[in-house]
Design a protein that fits this description.
The structure holds two protein chains of two kinds. Chain A is an alpha/beta fold. Chain A contains 13 helices and 17 strands. Chain A is 40% helix and 18% strand. In chain A, helix 2 packs across helix 11 and helix 3 runs parallel beside helix 4. Chain B is mainly α. In chain B, the strands form two sheets. Chain B has a two-stranded antiparallel sheet. A two-stranded antiparallel sheet of chain B has the order 2-3. The chains are: A alpha/beta, B mainly alpha.
Chain lengths: 413, 353
């Protein structure tokens, strides 16, 4: 009897040991893809990472959009054309630097659910019209050249909108300070073309000019497609301004420049425009009348050390100098998106990748101390990510003859 | 007679006359206030009037094209704005080449003549092409159909030029001899302004002589008066219609060159707004009436230039030049309220019904 019990106990022990030491069957924890308030984009093993652009690539202001697009292309090239082990697909829509074009482009982009982020728009008027559609589609939008102050006004901002370009509150103040302290002028006139960018910038300039003790004798407005500015210039001349600030775009700006000098009373007036005209096409439109005029624009000499490398790569790829003012901002915008994508992408078991749209927006929002080409970028709660440094340039005969923008600033605040 | 007219007056008529009087009142009060404030020197007003006459002459030349076609075919040729644009657009390529080769600086007069010839020829060809392809097949269709076709032809031409020749900025070379100015006392006129007005007057006089003194001109007037009878009289109506389009096209081409001499930039969409303004001018002067088109053009040009400052500045309205188109079209409404057929227009309902 005791031998039988001993046998049972031994068998039980062996059995218990066998069970305990048996190799564990691999229990696969089932993979749950992430959830996201705005939806999750699943990229299969062979799906590209789709980034789109909404820039003005045709028409009189084409240099602005093409310049920004090239900035993004160089950022893609710097990444070797790949992100998250996939090719980066980069295409987009021309937005025409106006509300209708912006609306149409945004609608087309919003209907494509494979797009993760949009680099755009070029002109503030475009995003005013098309922003809601892009925001509703869940895209993260980073603009390289929107500068209108109200786009990052907390009450008016679209969810998911950021920009690496400066806020015009800075540019208007710099322009006014230049006129007051450097040129030592007391009377000014402004002309805007009704677009959010021009109106915002002209208003900031006028307010800052008045605050600094100057007098604004006229704040005029024209239409962006107007051709005849001599009547409005004649009207402005009656107030005898010493400087006319017209922060508008290439076509109208060129005409105002060429017509201003022929209007009685304005022969000696100083002319100043802003970053919307900072391109060779503007000198083509204005002709020799542009020589000696001033332009406010981002301060390229204050950009980070990476800018020199950028310029070399740009020269190599496109065989010319940058066409406008916002190529580096576009490069930084794209870099921000790539960094954020790498942070939020969740890898699935079958080689696919899951990206949450709200997570992407949050990742861009949290950008802090990012070393970009334009400087150190930190995104604030309203979407302004830029490290704004504005300078004033003077146009020389060389610029007009060769149709290239000035290299060195004339004055820095 | 007055009592009869008062009896026939309806509520809508009274309302419209009141509206017209109100507009006129605002304009007069504004003008008095501006002139009383004395902010603008005589020199400024002179300049504004000169700008208005310069631009108005260009509108007048384009308006002639609209009015000629309307007189003959009773339809508005909306594609005329693209005929206006196509002349200088085609000539741009030659002008650009000449400018880059330095020919424009060496021999500006010859370069200018060449540009005029090329532009007027292209405009004429486009006008004839549009007539042949878009209008002739629809000669007997109901009135609305050629209208829609005209709008379609207009868009077609705009976008063809836009895509075919590239949408980048195109600027005409500068003709330095036109930038010089002559002064008499305080007032200055540039040679360009004088040139535009003189060329416009010459062309308008030439057209007038053509329609009044030549056989073809007489045939045009006959076809405009009554097409069927003219055909019975042995006039080849088709040929006359083509001639009319060609004439309108040539004038528009010349107007186009004058326009780019003043404004330097061309784009595929530059014809749209001057076309609308010129059409308005033609209606304002009396559609179908040649001197009316000239008068309407000048009137519109001067109102556009002078209006915002004269009418609105005195009323304290800020940035009045944003409203210049509104003012121009309000003046059109004003003229049509008191002269429904246009300034020199005939009462079409009675004569041509």
């Amino acid at each position: 009897m005791s031998r039988r019990i001993l046998l049972v106990i031994a068998l039980a022990t062996v059995f218990a040991l066998a069970v305990a030491c048996a190799p564990a069957t691999p229990t696969t924890v089932p993979f749950t893809p992430p959830t996201d308030a705005l939806g999750v984009v699943k990229l299969g093993p062979s799906d590209p990472v789709h980034i789109a652009y909404m820039l003005v690539t045709a028409g009189a202001d084409a240099t602005l959009g093409i310049d920004s697009r090239r900035g993004v292309e160089l950022a893609i090239e710097a990444k070797g054309g790949k992100l998250l082990d996939r090719t980066i697909k980069f295409d987009g829509q021309d937005s025409g630097c106006g509300a209708e074009g912006g609306q149409a482009a945004a609608a087309k982009l919003a209907s494509d659910a494979t797009i993760l982020a949009v680099i755009g728009s070029s002109c503030s008027s475009e995003i005013r019209a098309g922003g809601p559609a892009l925001s509703k589609a869940g895209f993260t939008v980073i603009s390289p050249s929107n500068t209108a102050p109200d786009l990052t006004d907390p009450a008016k901002r679209f969810a998911g909108y950021f920009r690496t370009a400066h806020n015009d509150k800075v540019q208007g103040a710099v322009a006014a300070k230049f006129a007051l302290t450097q040129l030592k002028l007391k009377t000014a006139a402004t002309i805007h073309d009704g677009s959010p960018y021009a109106q915002g910038l002209a208003t900031v300039f006028a307010d800052e000019f008045k605050k600094g003790g100057g007098t604004v004798v006229a704040q005029e407005a024209v239409g962006p497609d107007d051709k005849d500015f001599k009547p409005v210039l004649t009207k402005i001349a009656a107030g005898k301004p010493e400087i006319i600030f017209y922060p508008i775009f290439v076509a109208a700006g060129g005409l105002i420049t060429s017509q201003a000098k022929t209007v009685a009373g304005l022969e000696k007036v100083a002319l100043m425009s802003a970053d919307g005209t900072f391109s060779g096409d503007f000198y083509k439109a204005a002709g020799n009348a542009a020589v000696g005029m001033y332009q406010s624009s981002p301060d390229f000499s204050a950009f980070a050390s990476g800018y020199a490398t950028f310029l070399t790569a740009h020269q190599k790829k496109y065989n010319e100098k940058p066409l406008s003012a916002f190529h580096a901002h576009a490069y930084d915008g794209a870099s921000l998106i790539f960094a954020a994508l790498e942070k939020v992408a969740v890898k699935g078991p079958d080689g696919s990748v899951y990206i949450g749209r709200q997570a992407l927006r949050d990742a861009v929002q949290k950008t802090s101390g990012f070393q970009g080409v334009t400087g150190t970028l930190t995104c604030d709660a309203n979407g302004d990510c830029a490290d704004p440094k504005i300078a004033v340039y003077q146009v020389s005969q060389d610029n007009v003859t060769k149709l290239v923008t000035p290299d060195k600033p004339f004055w820095k605040p | 007679m007055l009592r009869q007219r008062l009896k026939r007056l309806e509520l809508t008529d009274i309302f419209i006359y009141l509206l017209g009087t109100l507009i006129l009142g605002v304009a007069i009060i504004g003008s008095i206030a501006t002139l009383a404030a004395g902010k603008y020197a005589i020199r400024a007003w002179f300049d504004l009037v000169v700008f208005g006459i310069t631009l108005g002459s260009i509108y007048a030349l384009i308006a002639l094209g609209y009015t000629l076609v309307y007189g003959i075919l009773r339809m508005i040729n909306f594609a005329h704005s693209e005929v206006f644009m196509s002349g200088p657009y085609v000539a741009y390529f030659f002008a650009d080449a000449m400018g880059k080769a330095g020919f424009v600086d060496q021999n500006p007069v010859l370069a200018l003549i060449l540009i005029f010839l090329i532009a007027m020829t292209s405009s004429t060809l486009i006008a004839i092409l549009v007539e042949r392809v878009a209008y002739r097949p629809l000669r007997h269709a109901p009135r609305l159909v050629p209208l829609i076709t005209a709008i379609g032809a207009s868009f077609f031409l705009q976008y063809t030029f836009f895509r075919l020749f590239g949408s980048n900025l195109k600027v005409y070379p500068e003709f330095k001899f036109l930038s010089a100015s002559i002064a008499f006392g305080e007032f200055k006129l540039t040679y360009l302004q004088i040139f535009v007005v003189v060329v416009a007057i010459i062309l308008m006089l030439a057209l007038h002589q053509f329609t009044q003194r030549t056989r073809v001109g007489k045939a045009m007037r006959a076809v405009a008066a009554d097409k069927e009878t003219a055909a019975l009289m042995g006039i080849n109506v088709d040929n006359i219609i083509v001639t009319t389009f060609a004439l309108g096209g040539a004038l528009a081409g010349a107007a186009g060159v004058l326009y780019v001499l003043v404004f330097n930039q061309i784009s595929a969409f530059m014809g749209f707004v001057p076309g609308i303004k010129a059409f308005t001018a033609a209606v304002l002067g009396g559609i179908g009436n040649i001197p009316g088109a000239m008068l309407g053009g000048l009137f519109l040009g001067v109102i556009e230039s002078l209006g915002p400052t004269l009418f609105l500045d005195g009323l304290g309205i800020v940035a009045p030049y944003q409203l210049k188109d509104a003012i121009a079209f309000t003046m059109l409404v004003l003229v049509l309220i008191f002269r429904p057929a246009g300034i020199l227009g005939e009462a079409l309902t009675e004569k041509k019904a």
